[in-house]
Design a protein that fits this description.
Blueprint lengths: L1 H54 L5 H23 L11 H14 L12 H8 L2 H17 L4 H14 L2 H10 L1 H4 L3 H15 L5 H12 L4 H13 L3 H12 L7 H18 L32
Length: 306
């Protein structure tokens, strides 16, 4: 059974990582192609205007040839600059490790939560590794929720199940419906914020509001601090990210994998703070070595405390 869970998890990791990477890469390719097309359009317009001016006698032959030469050099330089742009926007680097971590957590998260193991489809799936049983259980839970929308515990279990399946939009809806049950739980609110950030592709707006609410409930909540640091990092607010992560670092055990991971995030943010406008060498990637224990809502990497 354990072997089956490991195999299913690895397959899920590969599929999710490839889908996310491919989607972001395609966006970058389209962006660069659009920029090239615009450069060519501007160049053609410039040549047309020069030809008209030359034909009308506004510029002589020598000036016309020199202007054409300069326009062609500008076009070559602009195209070269576009070709040197990274296909993947550095601002979204955090999305890949987060998405990569989702299937890993689906296989391990509920091993840490024993009190819901008897009724939670995701927890039962981790324990049994039976995919068909998991899907059937989710369908039964969906029917139960349809018949009794006020069953908040079932709504929360459905939200967690959707998250484990990568169905983020439906997970967000279910978390919202379970709000009266989780509104005073900093960790659950943080998980909600993380799923919402994954669905939207950004912490802007409601995810940030939820993180602030979680920190107001518990200023030392590991998940909330990690997300707060990740949100600040994404916005380029590196000093703020360092502040949150240093507080988190003081809460985790020294020498642990979590402590080391947080230290790497702090080091990365500090480098960016000290070197504004620069990009790190590709040999140094703060997401390398991410643990399989990472929670799906965390932007940079943090062992779950659930």
């Amino acid at each position: 059974m354990t072997e089956f869970i490991i195999l299913a998890t690895l397959i899920s990791v590969i599929v999710v990582a490839l889908l996310v990477w491919s989607s972001i890469k395609q966006q970058g390719v389209r962006r660069n192609n659009d920029a090239r097309a615009q450069c060519y359009q501007v160049h053609e317009q410039t040549l047309l205007e020069l030809a008209n001016d030359h034909k009308a006698g506004l510029i002589d032959e020598a000036t016309y040839r020199e202007a054409r030469y300069e326009a062609e050099n500008r076009l070559v330089a602009d195209i070269r600059n576009i070709d040197e742009r990274p296909v993947m926007n550095p601002a979204y680097r955090w999305i890949i490790p987060v998405s990569f971590a989702v299937p890993l957590v689906a296989a391990g998260l509920y091993l840490l939560v024993g009190n819901l193991a008897g009724s939670d489809p995701a927890a039962n799936f981790v324990r049994t590794g039976n995919v068909g049983q998991f899907v059937n259980a989710v369908e039964q839970l969906e029917e139960k929720v349809r018949q009794n929308p006020e069953d908040l515990r079932s709504q929360l279990m459905l939200a967690r199940s959707y998250r484990a399946m990568g169905r983020y939009e439906e997970s967000v809806i279910a978390f919202g419906r379970a709000w009266p049950l989780i509104k005073d739980d900093a960790t659950e609110i943080s998980i909600f914020a993380g799923v919402l950030a994954l669905y939207r592709g950004s912490f802007e707006g409601k995810p940030d509001e939820l993180i602030e609410q979680a920190l107001a409930l518990d200023a030392n909540d590991h998940d909330a601090l990690t997300l707060a640091g990740g949100s600040a990092f994404q916005k380029g607010q590196y000093a703020e990210a360092i502040r949150h992560w240093k507080k988190l670092q003081a809460l985790v055990g020294k020498g642990s994998e979590e402590h080391q991971w947080v230290a790497e995030q702090i080091e990365e943010a500090q480098w960016r703070l000290d070197n504004p406008g620069k990009e790190r060498s590709p040999q140094r990637d703060p997401h390398q070595g991410m643990s399989a224990e990472v929670d799906p809502q965390l932007p940079m990497g943090q062992a779950p405390v659930l």
